[in-house]
Structure formats: structure tokens, C-alpha cells
Amino acid sequence: MDENASATELVIPKIGPMRWLWGVAATILSLIYTVIFSIPSALASFFDNGHAATPIIRAWSWCIIHTCGIRIEMEGLENLRGIGPCVIVSNHQSLFDILASILKLPGEVRFVAKKEILKLPILGFILHKSENIVIDREAGGKAIRRARDVVRHGYSICVFAEGHRYNDNQVHEFSDGAAWLAIMNKLPCVPMAISGTVAMMPRGAKFVVPGRRMRMKLGAPIPTAGLRSADRAELTRQLEAAVRATFTTEV
Description:
With 251 residues, the chain is α/β, with parallel strands linked by helices.
């Protein structure tokens, strides 16, 4: 959930005037939805360890996804059955990755975000209070304790392991933070490849490109029982390889 721009070239598809107008209207409506849903989400975040905010945040995501005409293909949900809370590790191309994950992943999912996200008015507050994990690189132990609380409250954790969003429609090197959190909290890791969202609203675009399709594919879970912190590099390589194997540049 990082907002840093990548140095790669933007991938912005050419569209006709009617779809462009749809995209402008959808973007404006999405901002209106954000205003409408942000206050009740913030208030609900105070209750039941953030669980009360989940249906509101899902409705918020649903409104944006459907207004933008995004079709989501979801594969591999059977890989989440029976494993309980886990760390879902994914690539990251667009803000739609977050919205689709909120909407389509079963159970309740919370995200790892950098501490800079807290500077966003209201949204930063919602993220923090609704049990998302805000990372401060200088206080790693605090992140582990926060993750333990999040899991104890029944959430899975989703990590976009590349560190930022990229616009070149490729999978980039994963950082080892997701593997580290999983090992320290003894949680299985589930790789997830997200394809197609870079063409919807890449970093730097002002308006969404509506009416497109995206794919989310979950891989087989990788257990972390018996692993130590020193094993996080190898686990990270396994997760990155699993995401690369199922990622596609054509959706």
C-alpha cells in the first residue's frame, strides 16, 4: 500500500471518448464514495477490534469496483480452505489490487502499509484503527507484536511484497518482510498473483480506465513451521517464484 512512484514507463491503454467519459465519471464517483464511507468506517473502527468496519469497507470497495466496471476472475480459493489466518503475499500494480483483495478474499484481510500512510487525513486513521499493520522500519519488534494481535483477532494479513506499485506489467523482486512476519508469527504463506490492474489506473494516471478485466490467482500455501528468521530469504524466493509462475501480462 505504498504510494511511491516507480521509475518505469507508464502503461496507459488508448481508449475512445465514451470510455474516457465513463472513466472520468467513475473516478469522480469513487472520490464521492470515499467521502461518504470514510466517516462511518472511521467510527466503526473503534468497535470489535476493527471487525465492525469490515462490512463498510467492503461496501466501499464494491461501489468503486462496480462503478468502474471491473470484472474480477478469482482462482485458487481452495488453497485457503482450512488453514486459518495466513500471510497472503502478492505483487502490486494498482490501487485496484487492494480493493479487489478486500472484496474477493474470504474471511477478513488486513494489509501491511508503511508509516507514511498515517499522514493521509481520515484514511490513515481508518487503516490504523481497523487493525492494518503500519510498518516502521526502526521498530520491527512492534510490527511483529501488531501482527500477532491482528492474527489473534481473526484476520489474515496481505502483503504486497515488491514494496511499491510498478507500471511496467512485470513482477519485481520481493522484499523479505512478508516472509519475516510469517515466520515470526508461525503463519503459512499463500502466494497470490494479480494480473491486469496496471492498465486500469497506473501510477500517474488521473482517471481510471473502466470496463476492464483482472485476474487474482492464489497458489498452494507454504508452511513456516520450523523455520527461523534466517530462512526468510529462501522463503521469499519461493513466494516470488510462485507468483511469477502464475502471473500473466495478458488478461
